[in-house]
Amino acid sequence: MSKTVGWCEWVRLPELGIERLECKVDTGAKNSALHAFEVDPFQKDGQEWVRFSIHIDDKDLTKIKTCEALVQDIRTVTDSGGNNTERFFIETALEIGDFKLQIPISLTSRDTMAFKMLLGRTALRKAGLIVDSAESYLQGIK
Known about the structure:
Oligomer: single chain
Number of strands: 11
Low-confidence stretches: none
């Protein structure tokens, strides 16, 4: 099983019920990020949770999935434009090809971005993945 990924890949987020999502592999980003809207925190069993919606099909924005996850952290993140925003971080399972790992993901608006998810270098390092920036979809979708 090759540990090489392309600059974009198909991923799954099974704990969120996401079976296929196009993802940009971004070594310039420390954290992974997922486009989320209608982000609403709530209490469940004495813990902070967050409910959010995501677009599951870039070509059909009417296809929406509402998810819930335990909040792992709230942190200030500096985006590529130098803007600081406070974001919810969740932890969830990610599958890319045959690789399966738990990763932290920040929830943020990526409305204007081509990809609704970024896979950052922290997750890449955890999985021991190497990026070939000249290639794409090396891991396929399992």
